[in-house]
Amino acid sequence: MLRWAVTLLLWQLSLPLYGDDYRLDIYSQAELLTLIQQDKYLQQVQADDCQLVQDIEARADILQQPLYQFLWGEMLNFGICVPVNPSRGMVLLRAAAEQGSPEAMVQLAKYYQHGRFVVQNKDRAVQYVLPAAANGSQPARMMLVRLMAAGYGSPRDYEQAYHWLFNEVFSDDAVKLEAMKLLQGLEVKMPASVVERARNASLTSR
Predict the structure, then answer these.
(1) Is CB count within 10 Å lower at the N or C end of the chain?
(2) Based on the number of CB atoms within 10 Å of its own CB, is 50 exposed (0-12), middle (13-18) or buried (19 or more)?
């Protein structure tokens, strides 16, 4: 019964409107991921004149798709096309993170790092960003090394964090330069032998 109701709802949301109005196509997963990576997702919702609010809400609340939970949560956090409601928005971000979304993990880590919407807690920021870094997220790896260089997180994880970022592939020279500076900041907290081991393409056992 529930599956039928969800199918009917999505069919209704996909129906075209005639006359002077028309319905925009909802973003594909790939399109939404690109918008999030480029930090243009909220601007796009506004540029679309808030026509996709119902579609976005359905995919976040009913289908529980992590990228749409991220988007809907951020719309609520900042009051984009809907009344501002960060309490609900943060719940949605956490739900996306629990489903393994690196984008949600990084965003939550940023909020805890800077104390936005929540009490500032940089150790909790590390807890959120560490699994995203392990999952291959380059922004997460940059953020993790930055936090650890500032003294947050466990020293037991320094070697792994250094290894991930040192062996990262960069398509942007400016980002690579920033990564090198972050690595230098973490190096001073690590023995030279550990730094050398962390630089290997394959991290050897300790």
Answers:
(1) N
(2) middle
